[in-house]
């Protein structure tokens, strides 16, 4: 496993929440297939809420707010202790391909991947390559009217790999996320906000979790106004 920063494995870039309408079912499916996401949120959530409880069970779903730091550390620990998995810190720049056809015309359909090359020239070889770029391929961060290159705040953008994939004939699309601002809790007057408590008997995401041990932390609701938009 190659990652740009060993210390940010599992870092939640956007709203630190798992589940919700539609996505909650996906988390359950990942868990059924042996994935770690459901177990991680069950261990690190600060609040669980069952959504649409006034409606029928077909449209109900679970959502949990996570402690970003605890979730990151949990995922990092799991990966570092996974048998048979080697983790390296590296920026991948290029896919390594080889021809599998004797034809003089070499196109992508007649070539096969056999590894990757990093920004410092290291080569890691393998019979297949799985790319999980998230928001990092030619990522751009927008703050107000300002914008700059970055996969997320404080993280590099993977520019060369995007160019390499495009040169190989792959189509790259743009995906947009809207990240909520990070606020200093000491600067907030919580008495003027609406408190939203979690469920008293939270339902775990993972089928293997017997119960939630950590205590719940209330969330607080705010509303936008004309001054905010200005």
Overview features:
230 residues; alpha+beta; FAD/NAD(P)-binding domain; three-stranded antiparallel β-sheet; 19% helix; 23% strand; MnmG N-terminal domain-containing protein; FAD; flavin adenine dinucleotide binding; flavoprotein; FAD/NAD-bd_sf
Question: In total, how many domains does the architecture comprise?
Answer: 2
Cα-to-Cα separation, first versus last residue:
44 Å
User: What structural class results from the helix and strand content?
Assistant: alpha+beta
Weakly predicted, low-confidence segments? none
Describe the structure.
Keywords: FAD, Flavoprotein. With 230 residues, the chain is α+β, with helices and mostly antiparallel strands. The protein has two domains: 2-85 and 186-229, FAD/NAD(P)-binding domain; 89-167, no CATH class. Helix content is 19%, strand content 23%. The protein has five helices and twelve strands. The chain has a three-stranded antiparallel beta sheet with strand order 2-4-3. Helix 2 crosses helix 3. It is globular.
Briefly say what this structure is:
With 230 residues, this protein is an alpha+beta fold. It has helices at residues 23-32, 37-44, 68-80, 159-167, 226-229, and strands at residues 2-3, 17-19, 45-51, 61-66, 88-89, 92-99, 111-118, 123-125, 140-143, 146-149, 194-196, 219-221.
Secondary structure topology:
Elements: E1 2-3, E2 17-19, H1 23-32, H2 37-44, E3 45-51, E4 61-66, H3 68-80, E5 88-89, E6 92-99, E7 111-118, E8 123-125, E9 140-143, E10 146-149, H4 159-167, E11 194-196, E12 219-221, H5 226-229
Parallel strand pairs: 1-5
Antiparallel strand pairs: 2-4, 3-4, 6-7, 7-8, 9-10, 11-12
Helix pairs in contact: 2-3
Cofactor: FAD
GO cellular component, one term: cytosol
Keywords: FAD, Flavoprotein
């Amino acid at each position: 496993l190659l990652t740009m920063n060993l210390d940010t494995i599992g870092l939640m870039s956007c709203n630190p929440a798992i589940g919700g309408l539609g996505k909650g079912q996906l988390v359950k499916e990942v868990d059924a297939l042996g994935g770690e996401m459901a177990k991680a949120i069950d261990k690190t959530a600060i609040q669980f809420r069952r959504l649409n409880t006034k409606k029928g069970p077909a449209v109900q779903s679970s959502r949990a707010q996570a402690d970003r730091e605890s979730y990151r550390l949990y995922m990092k620990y799991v990966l570092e202790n996974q048998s048979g998995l080697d983790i390296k810190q590296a920026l991948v720049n290029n896919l390594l391909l080889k021809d599998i056809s004797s034809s003089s015309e070499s196109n992508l359909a007649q070539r096969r991947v056999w590894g990757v090359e990093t920004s410092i020239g290291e080569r890691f070889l393998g019979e297949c390559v799985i790319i999980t770029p998230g928001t990092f391929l030619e990522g751009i961060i927008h703050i107000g009217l300002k914008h700059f290159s970055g996969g997320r705040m404080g993280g590099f953008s993977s520019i060369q790999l995007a160019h390499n994939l495009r040169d190989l004939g792959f189509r790259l699309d743009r995906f947009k996320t809207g990240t909520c601002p990070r606020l200093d809790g000491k600067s907030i007057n919580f008495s003027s906000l609406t408190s939203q408590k979690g469920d008293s008997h939270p339902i775990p995401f993972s089928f293997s979790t017997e119960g939630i041990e950590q205590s719940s932390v209330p969330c607080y609701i705010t509303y936008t106004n004309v001054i905010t938009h200005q």
